[in-house]
Amino acid sequence: MAEKKRVEESLDPENWDELKALGHRMVDDMVDHVASVRQRPPAMFVNEQTAAAFMKPLPVEPEGLDAAYGDFKAGVLDTHGGLNTHPRFWGWVVGTGTAQGALAEMLAAGINFNMPGGPFAPVLVETQVLEWFKGVFGFPRGASGLLVGGGSEANLLGIAVARNTKAGFDVRKLGQSAAPRRMVLYGSTETHVCIDKAVQLLGLGEDSYRKIPVDDDYRMRVDLLEAEIAKDKAAGLQPFLVIGTAGTTNTGSFDDLDAIADVCEREGLWLHVDGAFGAWAKIAAGAAPLVKGIDRADSLAFDLHKWMYMPFDVACTLIRREEDHFRTFAEHPDYFGAASTMKMRTDYGLQVSRYFRSLKVWMGLKEHGLAKFGRLVQQNCDQARYFEGLVKASPELELLAPVASNVVCFRFRAPGLPEAALNELNAGLPRMLMGMGVAVISDTKLRGRTALRVCVVNHRSRREDFDLLAGKVREAGAMMLQRMGSR
Ligand SMILES: *Cc1c(COP(=O)(O)O)cnc(C)c1O
After folding, report:
1. Could you tell me what percent of the chain has a pLDDT over 70?
2. d(CA 288, CA 110)
3. How far is CA 421 from the centre of its chain?
4. In angstroms, what is the C-alpha Rg of the chain?
5. Spatial distance between the Cα atoms of 164 and 166, rounded to a whole number of angstroms
6. Is the C-beta atom of 433 inside 6 A of ligand 1?
């Protein structure tokens, strides 16, 4: 009796030429989508019909790539406004990306390289990019780095290296609870929440994290930092780390890194700089002085997907001394095999499997050159300054924080309206502006007051976009005021 014919399958297409044709269509659609972003509303909300398309059962039998792509196009692409790719998106800190970067992502996924290290060209791409960044931020040749998924992770890695290096005992073996004295660290009241998470995850505990008050410019009070360190030392605690922020999320302020570095040097503390977006002020002609002292950091975290306009997700950690970095994360289990004898990328961070995220960075920098990015960062600062001028010139608007870089915090004014009602009015404005198809901005609280917040990390914005915003905020504010009056 003949043996039943063995059928072995793969996930490859039946017809490569058909795949190419569909792929070309995808590229066309995607590039058209990006190229026409200004013609779409900044934000589109999904309707019930669209939402229903995402509640279908898991397909057990094939629907085919054509159908899957058709569903993506109808359900996602065509229902999607510009959001953060739109020229008038200025909410939170969300980068724009580029169509070219999207193509680089396709290439990276095509090669599908998983980078443990070793003599492979894609490893050299990341190494090259890290060398470039060491140069940009004035880090020494002996520094190391790693590309990671975001600023939150980049900060976590930096703080982990700081903790392990400064502990004075083997934290990896004994654990944080073996610390003879409580290890304390310092940030400001404006420091990003990812530092709180890192402190929690590393077992340092929030009680060990001092949030130093800021001055009227939202910069850490260095005199109070020194006083707090002295107090903690006198109490027998172990200060080990100061987090300086280059570009705070709320107002775009910059801590005085040079002054903080002086304190760290004097007190023997590690200086970690969270430069998630603001580190890139370094490459802008006018803004560079804001990050004076950044080259003195022991560790530095920054994003490429915010103020470098690269597609999500990619960020970077730099560590001044490679051996500190390696000693914090190196692990060589038997199952790494022969590779185990050499230093691998995973010896510098958490991920073992990692995708080829350096490619879009390398290609983006090659395509445009650093100077162009520097001009764009400066352009965003200039646009923020321009919008600040519009706010100041308008009696209905009020500036709520000094503009240091690319963030403008302001509000709609309504003389005579109680503070609580004014807060309520302003808190409703971002949603209203989205609904009107004007722009996406966010809101925050500054000293108890609700502020509208415009953060420009957008290479597509133009001056006219800010004129439009100023006018529409006045219009929307007046409408809200009328509504509230008729309640
Ligand atoms: C955005 C931001 C972070 C977090 O970075 P992600 O890339 O979003 O994880 C940290 N610090 C500051 C100052 C930020 O603006």
Report:
1. 99
2. 38
3. 33
4. 25
5. 6
6. no
The structure tokens listed for 259 are: 């002054």
Please spell the DSSP secondary structure of 426-442, one letter per residue.
HHHHHHHHHHTTS-B-E
Total residue length of the chain: 487
Per residue in 397-427, pLDDT tens? 999 999 999 999 999 999 999 999 999 999 9
- Residue with tokens 């580190």, as numbered in its chain: 279
How far, in Å, is the centroid of ligand 1 from the Cα of 2? Answer: 64
Average pLDDT over residues 96-103: 98
DSSP category for residue 459: T
How far apart are the CA of 195 and the centre of ligand 1, in A?
A: 10
Ligand 1 proximity of 250 Cβ (cutoff 6 Å): no
Name the token pair of 50: 């669209």
d(CA 156, CA 241): 13
Tokens of 138: 């004035």
Buried b or exposed e, range 127-145, using 16+ CB within 10 angstroms: eebbeebbebbebeeebbb
On whether the CB atoms of residues 304 and 361 are closer than 8 A, the answer is yes
**312 CA from centroid of ligand 1 (Å):** 13
CA distance 12 to 10: 6
Give Dmax (Cα) for the chain: 96
Written as six digits, the tokens of 212 are 């130093």
How far does the centroid of ligand 1 lie from the alpha carbon of residue 33, in Å? 27
Rounded to the nearest integer, the mean pLDDT of the chain is 96
Residue 324 identity: D
Which residue's CA is the closest to the ligand 1 atom numbered 3?
Answer: 151
Is residue 277 within 6 Å of ligand 1 at its C-beta? yes
Q: How many Cβ atoms are within 10 Å of 12's Cβ, its own excluded?
A: 8
Beta strands in 136-251 (DSSP E): 144-148, 183-188, 209-212, 238-245
